[in-house]
């Protein structure tokens, strides 16, 4: 897995990221929402590529630091359909958390989980807070990382 700032991404990587997010979040999950939200430019992007085919993007996630609230937001975690259930999501999150803890130890780490995926995030040290809410027609809940 590699991490890059927006300006370090190649045109092909930007296209692959947008396509994967669109294929899963909009088409597969039938959720009409504004995926290109103007926040990619300030994020660190994590790309999980197929070892034998570096053009194939298996997974993706982004991380943004919100200095004013001392929060790190993990966002847009997504896996290609055929990559699910093989431990890639856990591997991605563990790497992201390790990087965040190294660079932003004093920040709270938060994410917004689709409610069906809460158990996955709980196993990695996240706990729910607040009430569930609708985001693009899919129920989500905020989660906070509690392990160091």
UniProtKB/TrEMBL annotation:
<dbReference type="InterPro" id="IPR000182">
    <property type="entry name" value="GNAT_dom"/>
</dbReference>
<dbReference type="GO" id="GO:0016746">
    <property type="term" value="F:acyltransferase activity"/>
</dbReference>
<feature type="domain" description="N-acetyltransferase">
    <location>
        <begin position="4"/>
        <end position="148"/>
    </location>
</feature>
<dbReference type="Pfam" id="PF13673">
    <property type="entry name" value="Acetyltransf_10"/>
</dbReference>
<protein>
    <submittedName>
        <fullName>GNAT family N-acetyltransferase</fullName>
        <ecNumber>2.3.1.-</ecNumber>
    </submittedName>
</protein>
<dbReference type="InterPro" id="IPR016181">
    <property type="entry name" value="Acyl_CoA_acyltransferase"/>
</dbReference>
<keyword id="KW-0012">Acyltransferase</keyword>
<keyword id="KW-0808">Transferase</keyword>
């Amino acid at each position: 897995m590699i991490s890059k700032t927006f300006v370090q991404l190649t045109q092909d990587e930007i296209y692959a990221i947008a396509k994967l997010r669109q294929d899963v979040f909009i088409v597969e999950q039938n959720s009409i929402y504004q995926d290109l939200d103007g926040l990619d430019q300030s994020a660190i992007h994590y790309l999980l590529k197929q070892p034998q085919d570096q053009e194939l993007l298996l997974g993706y996630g982004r991380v943004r630091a919100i200095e004013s609230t001392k929060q790190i937001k993990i966002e847009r975690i997504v896996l290609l359909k055929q990559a699910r259930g093989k431990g890639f999501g856990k591997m991605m999150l563990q790497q992201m958390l390790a990087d965040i803890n190294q660079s932003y130890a004093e920040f709270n780490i938060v994410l917004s989980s689709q409610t069906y995926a809460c158990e996955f995030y709980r196993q990695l040290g996240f706990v729910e807070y607040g009430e569930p809410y609708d985001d693009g027609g899919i129920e989500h809940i905020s989660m906070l990382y509690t392990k160091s």
